[in-house]
Amino acid sequence: QVQLVESGGGLVQPGGSLRLSCAASGFTFSNYRMSWYRQAPAKERELVAHITSAGDTTNYLDSVKDRFTISRDNAKNTVYLQMNSLKPEDTAVYYCNAKRKYPTREYWGQGTQVTVSS
Length: 118
Description:
Blueprint: E1 3-7, E2 10-12, E3 18-25, E4 33-39, E5 46-51, E6 58-60, E7 68-73, E8 78-83, E9 92-100, E10 105-108, E11 112-116
């Protein structure tokens, strides 16, 4: 059974930090590109960051560059999102995503709420 379980969300003040984790099981984690998406109320889901299967390439949404860092540990089947200098506009539900191309497979986690507020 495929599972992606996010953790680490919560309430933080502006300027604070959070570290999200996503623990994967039920598939060969090291074969999948991993991503973090987010969805704020009344907005479309957007890609925040992704990392290649080997962990050698990352990409970020412009608004989070230099503040967020995505990383992965293939030995632990876990992907992380370190979020620093958080802003109120980062408030959203954050989702973990696993995707491979050949054959096409895609999985989603249930999401974790991040709220940035004073």
